[in-house]
Amino acid sequence: MEYIYNLLQLFAFFFYLCLGLFMLQRGKDKSKYSFVILCLGLSLFSFGHFNLFTPGMPESMALFWMRISIIGLAFVLPGYLHFVALLIGYTSLLKHKLYYWAYIVSAGFILPLTLSHKSFQVYNWGYYPIFNPMVSIYHLFLLFLLAETVYLLYSGSKKIREKIGDKMLRYLMLGGICTVILVVFNMLPVYKIKVYPAGNIIVFPYVLFLSYLILKYQLIPITIIKKREAYSITAGFLMFLLVYGVLYIDYFLKISWHNSLWPTIILGLIMVMVFKSLHSRINKIIDYIFFRKAYMHTLALQDFTRSLSSTLTREVLLHSMLGTLERILDTNIIFIMTIEDKHYKIIQSVGLDEKTVHSMSFSYSHPIVTILKEEKAILLLNEVRDENLRRYFEKTQAVIFLPIIYQDSLPGIIGIGRKRCGDYNDNDLLWLSNFSLSASLGMVNTGLYEERTRHLYEGIKILVQTLEAKDTYTHGHCERVADISHLIGCQLNLSETQLEDLKMASILHDIGKIGVSKQVLNKPGFLTQKEFMEIKEHPSIGGKIVESICFPADVHNGIKLHHERFDGKGYPEGRENKDCPLIARIIQVADAYEAMTSNRPYRQAMTQEAAMEELNRGKAKQFDPYIVEAFLKATGESDL
């Protein structure tokens, strides 16, 4: 048990020492000194206990290390009180510098106690102060410091919660209890209560957690440690353990092997191999710790940028933008504003109430819009001094306005709320800037696509109107087929691009009838063989028309092959179902159903029920059963 305890003390000493020196070197303001004192006090305490518990330690040296340990403990609780006071901004304690008195009084108790030769006695696992009134008074003083620290943590919990969140606050309070356990455990042996002095081991995980809070949430303004420094600290610590371990075990081996060098040499080689492997593994862990967050941020930006090539509409783009921001930013509020009716309005948001979403609107001349256009940079609440501007931030609960800039235009604005824990750092702002660049390209691309689509549909509308002027009985037929096709496509979970292609192909599926004579199209009776052969040419004619306009391949195939059959007996190519594209198979069903339920020159419209029965009879013959069932299910007529 003592050997394990000793090793833990050594590890704790090295950790506290490195952490204290790191804070001393890296800290930007005076608040670091309280934590440095806490760490150095704990390092003295741990190093004293490490040597104190070394087997075979002479009494004089043991007493020396015990005094070192007690001196270190004298600065732990005052340092902790000082740190908590700075953390919550307790002005009364800080203004009058009452924490100085905590250090002075603690040192006043400890120095006489450690200088006296009659103040210690051997006790089971080590050397402890002899019970006397002075020790009791000092213990009462320590308990007072503990009570004051716990009170400060409780009273300042609201301010701390804003920085680190509820979960981390609970851990911080739990650490305060661990500190109480540390002190109480190390008091009990003085009063002849035989418990193992493990209080300082209990507090070690808490200091580790506290260090994590400081680095993650910048409780103390420090610059982040570099990866090579982490490598150096790790290598130094492992080297220290290696040398100490060899010397430590060598002492016992020489006793057993009568001063032979062979056991020491063999042991040294084994430990070198073990520590080399351990060092490699620890370096991998360091790489993961340092680069995990940056890697996740880079991956999210890459995924978003990659998705832009297949994002065709603004609605999908804004949804993708919002999802990416939610994935990366630790905030409850995000909103995206784009231009609607000559104003910037919130189109996508999370965390905002409906009243704010509908009421928030920026004109082109709005101060925030003007600043974002002129500066072309992120606008931070912390950098705004104008009270009018700050009110706009507060109204939307935003702390960041991110411009989406393309050349000299501002197609969009992103608002971002406070972080759940801590503040946005330079890395966050750099990532947002890069995200804004990708988002601006996405907005331009979707704008161009929507403009192209609009012009395309205007051309399609003219073509359809030309066809309907020639075939009066098909007026509105193409739009109805498009609606039915869309219904089937949604039931089949087609992508946005597939639905767009399906819509165009459905609207234009009969465009080839422009090449069919008006007399044949409007003939009220049955068609002759020659007339029917002329009608059968319209899919091929339509395919040639859209081919010359450079429509997507799916649109071309949907128009050309919409009269093919499942059994391969259709026209113009006689393709079987497996060789017929999905869009064409959907239009086959939609076109047939719409034709059956509409009046034609040669017959009256069928009822919907009769048309449904006809589709069922045509499954696996004329129509793809999969498409028919999707249509029936979408219209609520399926028995599945």
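Above is the first protein from milestone M3; the second protein from the same milestone is given next.
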Amino acid sequence: MNVVFTLLVLISVLVAGWVGSPAHLARQEGTEVGVELEAGSPVKVGGKVRVDARGVEYPGVVVAVTAAVGDAQPTARVVSMSPDGPVSVRFDEEHRMKLVGDAAMDQAKKSVELAIGLIGMMTLFLGLMKVIEAGGGLDLIATAIRPFMVWLFPDVPSKHPAMGAMVMNIAANMLGLGNAATPFGIKAMQELDTLNRDKGTATNAMVLFLAINTTGLAVLPTGMMAVRAALGSHNPASIFPTTIAASHVTTLVAVLIAKGLSRLFPGGASEPVEREPLTWADFVPFSLFTTGLLGVCAIVGVYEQATFYIMPLLIGGMIAFGLIRKVKVYESLVEGARDGFASATKIIPYVVAILVAVGMFRASGAMSVLVSALAIPAKLLAIPPEVLPLAILRPLSGSGAFALASDLTRTYGPDSYIGNLAGTMQGTTETTFYVLAVYFGSVGVKKYRHAVVVGLLSEFFGILAAVFFVRWLIGGP
């Protein structure tokens, strides 16, 4: 992550300086658009304006200024004019650099606000997790899914609390609970760290767990379905099967990549594990658990209003479980809530660092430069150029990617190929760098090993899977 952070910041500064250089501005004659300016007047990037001097018009003297842009439109200024040739234009370099500087300060503020916003959610759900843990719930969950998790995480004891916490996190993501899954994931990471023999370095189990999270494993893309419905889609749930198929294929690929690359990146040793052999009886609770989870997903998928019941029933069910198991619910909740508050404040430095770097990268115009560079390779892979900004932004900014996916859906229509693809991509991939910063930051991991590579490769295959399944199941060019 040290390399990623450094590159994002340095590239942002270099690109901002390049975009702001006079050599980057294209000057050409064009058609008159009826706007008359004097020397020193601002010129909007990408626009064409007619220029006059001291009230004397020069027909046909028009300037067109072009530059790679990110989230904001920079300006240029007319510095000289001649009736015999094009107008000389100078880009306001301080303006672009100002955007980058403002973005750094703004993202530093917003990242702290984001962490503060997570405090309430993490305090509540880590408190509820303590109730489940005190009642032996994590052991029960770990037993229920033992056959699957034993194969997936051979370095983790089958009845370790980390198993149950990871399942809670994965299940919450599959049900589309959003930030409610984060406390479960942090709890899982903290439990995995108890097995870590090299503190500060990610273990294979940690990297694999992060890989599953960065694939956006989901069966209920509730956010984009709501956007599609609001925009008048004839079938808001049309991205339901494409998201399921693409996210599950992407998760499988991520698991294979994580396991394969673990041999190339030394370190990350866990405590040795002794296992009991599996029997057929071990598969009975696993089958019941899987059937129940898929049943809930199917009900929610068919009955849209059923999504309103998930959160209240989840909270009520965890409290009821504690009562049945004779747990002192309030005391356990408060004890776990303290851990949630401490975890939320601990991740602030990591979140600030990565979001500041991402904000500078977007404001510098580097995003558009990267989109232009990837246009030809993307075309060879059948990825429409319209969704390239979304593909690049998704690993960097969750809120930004959601806003862009919503805008693409609105612009091209919710039932168009681009609209369906944007919705599927949003549900198939995840904000890789944010997930890495939050989860690894919660346990003080600084050496990520192959986690970043696995996350980005998973994002790439997620995009390809989304394109394939949208074209196959819905149709496209």
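Note on the second protein: The first strand starts at residue 36 and ends at 37.
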